[in-house]
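User: Before I run my own analysis I want an independent prediction to cross-check against. Here's the chain; please return only the structure tokens and, at the end, one sentence I can use as a sanity check.
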Amino acid sequence: MLTATERRTTRIGFIRSLLMISLVLLAFPVLAIVLSVLNNNSSFSRLSNAEFMKSLDRSRAASADWATEQFVSIGSSGEVMATHEGVELGSNPALAYMVTDCATMSGDPRLLHLAKFMKPRGNPPLWAKMVDPTVVAHPLGESEWADLEEYQRWIMHGISPSDAPLSAAELADMFSPDRFRTGKATHQLFALYLYRKFNGNTPELDRLMDRVENRIAAEAAFDFRVTDLYLQRIAFLLAAGRPDLVKSRWVERALAAQQSDGGWYYNWYGWAPHPFTYTFSEEHSAPHTTAQGMWLAYMLKYRYPEWVDKHYK
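Assistant: Structure tokens:
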């Protein structure tokens, strides 16, 4: 029979063993996260300029193929029509803006053909100016305005402050330097980008956007999940004129996540853009994510060739 001292020693040893096992079990996920963050920011191999451009051109072509196949169909009598997804794309002004910008940058006949479905017709609402700044659009009605989410009202205000006035609280949110994170921050940056495009630049706006852009870049460094938001961060930083904040490894991972059909998934191995949301549903290439992936690829090719030359020799 064990003595009291021996029993106490045994209990202490058992507790120590449990603590060691617990620490080892905790160390594995921590190590996995650390390695994932490192992999998100550094690459052990460096592509040549020719290799990267081949990858970029392949990505652009595949995404344009996917977009035109998904968004445009040929009717029984040969007429060109928008598919259900094409109607959805045209109803989302931000996505229509991305596709139209890709068409304008590249002159790609397929995208120019697709972009014509995005052109506003009749008496378009205010958001149509995002796609075509020359149109005369009517301000949103009271019910239309009430149906918008806050970030959508920011965008409308950015396009035309007089036609889309914001409340004091909404103005404070839109021009807040530190309030928003994740998707709210990228939406804020897009609204500020449009505000600058339609209303001109000021030193105060530059300082505000710089603060938001650097926060988005910091999030991109740590959030290694290649979700819809991952591509959105890169695309919006490029659109805002900050290729200097975009790491080559992020672009490489974004291009590598493109699916064989030319599109991109909204989630990443089940993880949604929100850090605490997981789904077991089957993945399909998503119009929202694919438009953003296509946009960032076209911007790197046509708007920021110097970024490519700097990062790939």
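Sanity check: Residues 110 and 148 are 32 Å apart (CA to CA).
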